[in-house]
Amino acid sequence: MSHQQADAIDVEAIREEFPILQREFDGQQVVYLDNAATTQTPDPVVDAMSDYYRESNANVHRGIHHLSQEASEAYEVAHDRVAEFINADGREEIIFTKNTTEGENLLAYSWGLAELGPEDTVVLTEMEHHASLVTWQQIAKRTGASVEYIRVDETGRLDMDHAAELIDDDTAIVSAVHVSNTLGTVNPVSELTDLAHEHGALSFIDGAQAVPNRPVDVTEIDADFYAFSGHKMAGPTGIGVLYGKQNLLEDLNPYLYGGGMIRKVTFEDSTWGELPWKFEPGTPPIAEAVGLHAAVDWLEAIGMDRIETHEEELAAYAYDRLEAEEDVEIYGPEGGPDRGGLVSFNLEGVHAHDLTSIMNDHTIAVRAGDHCTQPLHDKLGVPASTRASFYVYNTRDEVDKLVAALDDARQLFA
Ligand SMILES: Cc1ncc(COP(=O)(O)O)c(C=O)c1O
Fold first, then answer.
1. Which of 179, 372, 373 maximizes ligand 1 atoms within 8 Å of its Cβ, making it the mutation to test the pocket?
2. Ligand 1 center to 208 CA (angstroms)
3. Would the keyword Transferase turn up in this protein's UniProt record (predicted)?
4. Where in the chain do CATH 3.40.640.10 domains reside?
């Protein structure tokens, strides 16, 4: 179906493609506000994957038989579609991984282990997800490189003066999250990339919370590497993407070895195949690639601009409603263009886990914890927060239900 309309998104029509959103527990319909963890999967994506299994399933790498030809074609074309979606130059620049985390590890192991040394600095931000923070920390320990963090200011934004101070000729790579999964902050990733390039450093952007929710153009950002996950963008679990500039990927050695990625193997040595296959050894996630392709088609039929606007409005609405509650503390910038579609907060006197459990009594799905940003929570001075995160199918009415449920928590814990 087409969702194109003159202005706003037709949320009701979209919701019909998600049977899971009709589910009820104890007579209450699910309010799904845990989209930063994983989004729901619309019927066309599920159908594309089940059609693949019903009609075309075979291993790829261009077997001779019809089914393998068909599966290989579908798998390869999915790379082209993703390249087009983020405005990469072509399939050579799109490596399918398991998720964002694997993309970060791929780069850290293949580039970082080989290139970093005691004279180098890796510059991160204080709002990095553990997927990049822990990975670079460990690679730095093994190579002797040091890790520095761009400060987050009291508004939840990056201190760009501090960034300009930290990024210097010793910087080997700047690794920054595009949209913070805790603060919701949309970071100036082009500016950070420019700073990195001015000092001959590389830039890596963690786009796990950006690609699903807003138009992303890797060429415009000029990032050297950029990663994201299928399951946060209406696609399946088990597939993610590492984008890299072709000339950089050509020079990198693979970090996983095996079949499907080689050119020539002898008992003594091996040489690698073409991009992107040299980074995709073994049987890849074929049905998942078909699903990711369908998810990209589905998102673009709605329009990434309109998805961004819808989420920005919902986040601003949630921010305003929560801010009006005197006993609620919100983290990150106020609603507006530099806040993505999520809001993390705490209710005074109630632990985030208890609050989330009370939300669950109302069948409201939100997440409690440190959201894989422990050092950032330490800095905020709280062990955990509750996060409501929105997607294209969420409504203001659902935000109202979230805010109304706070009263229960107050009554129980007052
Ligand atoms: C900003 C950010 N980076 C990385 C990740 C890791 O994604 P995945 O678990 O799909 O590897 C997440 C997931 O929550 C995230 O929000």
1. 372
2. 5
3. yes
4. 47-300
Closest CA to 224 of 166, 280, 174: 174
How far is it, in rounded angstroms, from Cα 345 to Cα 380? Answer: 11
Name the superfamily (CATH) of residues 11-42+304-412: Aspartate Aminotransferase, domain 1 (3.90.1150.10)
Using CA positions, which residue lies closest to atom 16 of ligand 1? 181
Distance from C-alpha of 359 to C-alpha of 368, rounded to nearest angstrom: 11
Report how far residue 61's alpha carbon sits from residue 40's, in angstroms, rounded to the nearest whole number: 30
Ligand 1: distance of its center to the CA of 165 in Å? 28
CATH architecture classification, 47-300: 3-Layer(aba) Sandwich (3.40)
Closest-CA residue, ligand 1 atom 2, reads: 208
| Per-residue tens of pLDDT for the chain, all 414 residues | 444 444 689 999 999 999 999 999 999 999 999 999 999 999 999 999 999 999 999 999 877 999 999 999 999 999 999 999 999 999 999 999 999 999 999 999 999 999 999 999 999 999 999 999 999 999 999 999 999 999 999 999 999 999 999 999 999 999 999 999 999 999 999 999 999 999 999 999 999 999 999 999 999 999 999 999 999 999 999 999 999 999 999 999 999 999 999 999 999 999 999 999 999 999 999 999 999 999 999 999 999 999 999 999 999 999 999 999 999 999 999 988 899 999 999 999 999 999 999 999 999 999 999 999 999 999 999 999 999 999 999 999 999 999 999 999 999 986
372 noted as active-site residue? yes
The tokens for 203 are 């830039």
Neighbours of 275 (CB within 10 A): 20
Q: Can you tell me whether residue 221 is helix, strand or coil?
A: helix
Residues with CB under 6 A from ligand 1: 36, 99-101, 129, 131, 177, 181, 206, 208-209, 229, 240
Residues β-bridged to residue 347: 328
